[in-house]
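User: I'm curious whether this sequence folds into something compact or stays loose and floppy. Could you predict its structure so I can see for myself?
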Amino acid sequence: MDLKNRVEQCLGPKNFVVAMTECQGDLSVEVPKRSVVDVMRLLRNTPDLGFNFLSDLLGVDNLDLNKPKKKPKKKTEEGEGAETEEEPKDKGPSPPRYEVVYLLLCLERNERLQVKVRVEENDMEVDTLTPVWKAADWPEREVFDMFGIRFKGHPNLKRLLMWDDFPAHPLRKDYPLEGQGEERHLIYDD
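Assistant: Here's the prediction. I'll summarize afterward.
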């Protein structure tokens, strides 16, 4: 049985699968935020799956994903024309801005799986995976530091890359490339 069917068989009866996509042989599963710890335990402990290695964990900011795209300029007789915005095809509610993506590996069968959790801008908290995989500790701290997504129950959730008083989250797409004029003054004791 292929990986997609095994994952559906494991997660499907419990309604843990929001969406499942396959691209160039890689399987990606979107699960509800409230169930992420249960899903990860199932994926790790189910013998047919055995995803026993958390390879990585990362944050994604989809700020520009749902904005209308601009049509390219068309040349007119007088010169170049103006850009016009396309109307969005689906006028339903926009999907959540942030995602946390977990990259899992089954060492026994050399199979990979992406598990995605969408995170709303007004509820930026996901349960920590440190009880399931100790390796989630520092990657969760990095996602918190760079995107501001909090991990509920994390044993040591504090900044990892930026200094403690840094006022923003620099990998958010609304953070300016040149920064906001932050300065860190280091004080060295002699």
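Summary: The CA atoms of residues 113 and 123 lie 26 Å apart. The longest helix spans residues 137-147.
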